[in-house]
């Protein structure tokens, strides 16, 4: 997505570590959102937030979907 600053949401972190260190999930459906960095001392203008999409049980036939933000 053309940024170097990637942030992981707490929900995604919990989903990864839910079963412990020995058996992490093989696949997770992830939503990536590119946001504007409003910090004064920020080096990058944009950053990416990675969050988990709940409720996906079957990964067969899934396609990438581009969703426009409603701000």
UniProtKB/TrEMBL annotation:
GO terms for cellular component: cytosolic large ribosomal subunit. The keyword Calcium does not apply. GO terms for biological process: cytoplasmic translation. InterPro entries: Ribosomal_eL31 (IPR000054), Ribosomal_eL31_CS (IPR020052), Ribosomal_eL31_dom_sf (IPR023621). Keywords: Ribonucleoprotein, Ribosomal protein. One of its GO terms (molecular function) is structural constituent of ribosome. It comes from the Eukaryota. The keyword Protein biosynthesis does not apply. Belongs to the eukaryotic ribosomal protein eL31 family. This is 50S small subunit ribosomal protein L31e. The lineage of its organism: Eukaryota, Fungi, Dikarya, Basidiomycota, Agaricomycotina.
């Amino acid at each position: 997505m053309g940024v170097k600053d990637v942030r992981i949401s707490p929900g995604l972190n919990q989903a990864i570590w839910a079963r412990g260190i020995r058996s992490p999930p093989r696949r997770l459906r992830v939503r990536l959102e590119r946001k504007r960095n409003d910090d004064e001392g920020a080096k990058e203008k944009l950053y990416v937030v990675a969050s988990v999409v709940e409720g996906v049980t079957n990964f067969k036939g899934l396609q990438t979907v581009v969703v426009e933000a409603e701000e």
